[in-house]
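User: These chains co-purify. Model them together.
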Amino acid sequence: MLNTTLKAFIWSLVLLVAAPVFSSESEDGETTDVNEMIMHHVKDAHEWHILTIEGDDGHEKHISVPLPIILIDGGLKVFLSSELYHGEHVEFTNTKGEKEHYLVNEDLGYGLYHEKIYKLNQAGRLTFEHGHPTNAKPLDFSITKNVFALIFSAILLFVLLKAAVNTYKKDGMAPPKGLAKFIEPFVVYIRDDIAKENIGEAKYKRFMPFLLTVFFFIWVNNLLGLIPVFPGGANLTGNISFTLVLAFFTMILTIVSGNKHYWGHIFWMPGVPVPMKIFMAPIELLGVFTKPFALMVRLFANITAGHIIILSLVGIIFTFQSAAWGFLSVPMALFINVLELLVAFLQAFIFTMLSALFIGAAVSEHH
Amino acid sequence: MDLVTPDIGLIFWTGLVFLLLMFVLTKFIWKPLMGAVNNREENIQEALDMAKKTKAEMQELQTKNENLLKEARVERDQMIKEAKETSNQMIEDAKGKSKTEADKIIENARASIESEKNAAITELKTQVATVALEIAEKVIREELSSDENQKQLASKLADDISLN
Amino acid sequence: MYGSIAAIGAGLAVLGAGLGIGRIGGSAMDAIARQPEASGKIQTAMIIAAALVEGVALFGVVVGLLGNAK
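Assistant: Joint model of the three components:
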């Protein structure tokens, strides 16, 4: 074990030293903005970009799946995102003096800049101030990349679990078969070691659907996010909106199911002097919100960081313009990718575990 | 900054999809799955309890059987002992009885022999007395046939008396 | 410039979190070595504690990202 690790370490050192030598062979080419590529991947988008091909004439051809755009702007407006992406490219110079462009469809009256939809002004353009558009934004309920991944993963999860459940005979007496053999230990683990352990034998049953759904939903989305091609690769669990909603549900469950012991502990901490009680109340009250907030940030930051690291490692090849760097970056990206498989499970587990812990603190009877 | 700004559209869709998913999964997946798992666990527990109970019952039955066997063995031994005693008694009894009988027979025989002997002796005595008388008669008759002889005899007898 | 200062901040956050999680892991291993039969419970407690420490570090990372995006 140690020997293998040591070998791997020495080889990566050798590659690290040797790679610049190979890189001198590289031809001069257009530099790829790795930072922009990474940020583009990590953020949401209105189309599902699959790949870009450089045609013979030097023009870039984008192959992507267009997704429906749904706007509430004085009524419901629905159209395909290709209408914006294939719209007019308007170039402008930003505050740093770099050339940028945004997309405009004057027939619809909308423009797209950094994946955000803006209403166009009279001239059919966006107005920029300090590098940000000042145009009004319509309410955007589009089926974006992340929303698509969300729905896809929900259906996938349902189909997989349904297939697992169908293997059970009516009385459930036979040992689990097929997919159920894989699913059941997790379900039993969540029941015995997460729910029963943290919430207690008497009350855990009410929270089981939430805990199970959260665990499997986060896990399946973490894993789908690691698949590089459509329909995987959306950074859904690494999106703050997604984790916000899940953490919000945990907070609501905690607040709604909190008994008088729990609230007593927050507003009038027993066993401390009165001045301390007054001092503790706001801190404890703040804790009600910071706990789910930490839950939100933890999942978001872990998954986003994982995506960024993998993309940065692959991006080394493009920053240095040499395929030789692949000898270093590919094994390292592979290593991180395997690590992310573990993180995908671990984060789903920790989210579920901490949710159960918070709920358990809210419903516990004795202190 | 974009990265950490929540987006209203995604929040709406996530909430909707998650709630829908939770209800659908609860209805179609978690309930049957947990039901099956609980059912199986209960059944296994029941079977285990049953096995334990049966084992205890078996144990009890075995103990009972053993006790019964032990009792039977004791009883048998008792019976054998008694039978032996009875038979010994009987043998003893028979022995005693036969001895008495034999003694009695022997006694009888002895008595009859004695009486026969006595009878024989008596007869013999009578016979001998008769014969002796006859001889004596004959002798006396011979002796006393002449005067001389009578005189001799008388003197002889007289001698004998004087010698005495 | 903001980016580099944010990177220093992120590095400091990682330093703290690394120390914290390292201590948690080390203590957990000590505890497991002492009481191997309680390893399940120790692991759970360890993961929770590590997650709490990591949460603080992630705030640092997020602030770093915020600084970087400007």
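The CA atoms of residues 239 and 300 of chain A lie 6 Å apart.
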